[in-house]
């Protein structure tokens, strides 16, 4: 069976690069859509990935969109409302399947606070007593790859990947401490 070529936007980012790696490992031809030619896009080319600097006319069959779990038309954040709108636009393209991935806060966002916590001696946590199950970039990418490799099974569905357990501020500080 000939595997379809899959275009990945954001292919040089933390999650997109894992999506590309997993797809290539599974034998899929990949076209990486990147912002610019640089060391990251050159690295993709050395792994057999076709690199395109801008989106070109293509015969799309399936879009897997990475959005935000709070995306809605009534959210107070303009960016979050715009993400909801992009999801709606993609889902209305005739003849193109669409899958939405809505992670919460990425685990890497917490890891980015390590320097601040070490410098100030305080773990920054804005959610009060709230708890979260942050997924890793790799886990989010694996959800996207599963949807891309089996579009018929995932078309029209929405997923919210999470980490393995709910963590509060004490749990999070201990995990990254």
List the helices and strands and how they pair.
Layout: E1 6-9, H1 14-25, E2 30-33, H2 39-46, E3 50-52, E4 62-66, H3 78-91, E5 97-101, H4 107-111, H5 114-120, H6 137-149, H7 151-154, E6 158-159, H8 169-176
Parallel strand pairs: 1-2, 2-3, 4-5, 5-6
Word description of this protein:
The chain has 177 residues and is an alpha/beta fold. The chain is 40% helix and 13% strand. It has a 3-stranded parallel β-sheet with strand order 1-2-3, with helices on one face. The longest helix is centred in the middle third of the chain and has 14 residues, at 78-91. The radius of gyration is 18 Å and the shape is globular. The relative contact order is 0.15.
Counting DSSP E segments of at least 2 residues, the number of strands comes to: 6
Given helix and strand content, the structural type is alpha/beta
Strand arrangement, major sheet: 1-2-3
Largest sheet: 3 strands, parallel
Helix content: 40-55%
Order of helices and strands: EHEHEEHEHHHHEH
Radius of gyration: 18 Å
Shape: globular
Low-confidence runs: none
Mean pLDDT: 85
Q: Measure the end-to-end span.
A: 48 Å
Binned strand content: 5-15%
Helical run tally: 8
